[in-house]
Amino acid sequence: MTHVAAPMSLIQRDRVRLWHPYAPASPSLPLWEVEGADGVRLRLRGEDGTRHNVIDAMSSWWSAIHGYRHPILDAAAKRQLDDFSHVMFGGLTHAPAVELAERLADMAPSAPGRSRLERVFLADSGSVSVEVALKLAVQFQAASGYPQRQRFLSIRGGYHGDTFAAMGVCDPVDGMHAAFPGLLGGNVFAPRPPAAASATPETIQEWASELQSVAAACSGELAAIIVEPLLQGAGGMYPYPAECLTALRQVADRHGLVLIFDEIATGFGRTGELFAANHAGVVPDIMCVGKALTGGYLTLAALLCTEDVAAAVSNGPAGALLHGPTFMGNPLACAVANASLSIIDVGTWRADVARIGAGLASGLAAAGELESVADIRTVGAVGVIELHDAVDVPAITAAAIRHGVWVRPFRNLVYTMPPYISTAADIEQITAGMTAAVTEVHKHGPERSGGAP
């Protein structure tokens, strides 16, 4: 009798062929199949066949701010599909891209006496928008008579993406790219700003003086300063004072440097302002946005710059910004992005983020009493449990799922960036699930657990 092998499950088939982010190509990789998504919830199926209805506390890596299957976003995608889904952007244009550029320019940070961010370059992803921003800064300096300015100044703890130039401005020691030391540019790093919770006017001024010293030491070689404003994301979910953005603007102006704000994670309301730059009333020369731009529906990012920067490069030796992705300005993504920005324009995001932030602070407070917990912090609609030791990611993930919450911890952080439509009950479940998972998996502090799990 011929034996017929049982068909492999979707997860088993995945393990044979796919490679997941920041994970080994392993047949034992913990995975859950997504069978559906609606509102703030994911319907998951485990490898053992068990099903879980969980709150997506991650907003699909910070992008699905309006939740899943939003009727306005769904309708925008369907309308655009009825027209056309893609055309090249070289020599052609279309209404969704023009409308998106106008919307972004209108929404961008502004301040008296500063040039507005008026020119928009549409990119495929956040990392690509950072690549373009760095190239643009170098081209600007060359067009301004400083071709030797090809290095970048950033701050410790930063993260700007996984492509090569973006990796080169991430933290070179504690970042995720230390495996490539010979391939990354020799850029310059100032100390990390003081933590928002403990900063004083004196420590902010001390940091600003250090920043000035670092910039002055090699200003003739620097093209730009690039930072994540107010909140460092994948570098540690680390908030710092808004006054530091003012210092960054002053140093950039003093030394003729382009100031780049990477608002890919912080943009569109996540920190409590539409853009993190608005907390300080600072306008950068270049700003990158992505992630929540399309409400998590499609990959799209954008770079905004001042007309001064655009004009200098356009009139410079190259006569053009030297970048052009195949799917630049994808009409389908632009149409959904316009719908997402419409929700922000008429919605209640500011009140929602404030409400979520208060719920996260209240709900996570109990976790601060655990021996294994080093810190609890919140900013806007972001909540973080920092452990003394590295997180046992598979165990924490599985425990949180049992409590009805999807989280994706990293390093020593269990954190949440929930969708803005999350209710008070949703936030209560998220914080309770995170606290319960940490309690179950990391019961004791480092002196009793013997170090990292």
TrEMBL record:
The entry's keywords: Aminotransferase, Biotin biosynthesis, Cytoplasm, Pyridoxal phosphate, S-adenosyl-L-methionine, Transferase
Entry annotated with the keyword Transferase: yes
InterPro entries: Aminotrans_3 (IPR005814), Aminotrans_3_PPA_site (IPR049704), BioA (IPR005815), PyrdxlP-dep_Trfase (IPR015424), PyrdxlP-dep_Trfase_major (IPR015421), PyrdxlP-dep_Trfase_small (IPR015422)
Enzyme Commission no: 2.6.1.62
GO biological process terms held by the UniProt record: biotin biosynthetic process
Pathway: Cofactor biosynthesis; biotin biosynthesis; 7,8-diaminononanoate from 8-amino-7-oxononanoate (SAM route): step 1/1
GO CC annotation: cytoplasm
GO molecular function, one term: adenosylmethionine-8-amino-7-oxononanoate transaminase activity
Chain positions recorded as substrate binding sites: 61, 159, 291, 324, 408
Annotated residues for binding of pyridoxal 5'-phosphate: 126-127, 262, 325-326
Chain positions with N6-(pyridoxal phosphate)lysine modification: 291
Required cofactor(s): pyridoxal 5'-phosphate
Any single Pfam family the record assigns to this protein: Aminotran_3
Compartments, record wording: Cytoplasm
Span of the signal peptide: none
Family the entry assigns: Belongs to the class-III pyridoxal-phosphate-dependent aminotransferase family. BioA subfamily.
PANTHER family from the UniProt entry: ADENOSYLMETHIONINE-8-AMINO-7-OXONONANOATE AMINOTRANSFERASE
Subunit-level organization: Homodimer.
Protein name per its UniProtKB record: Adenosylmethionine-8-amino-7-oxononanoate aminotransferase
Species of provenance: Arthrobacter oryzae
Name of the gene this protein is made from: bioA
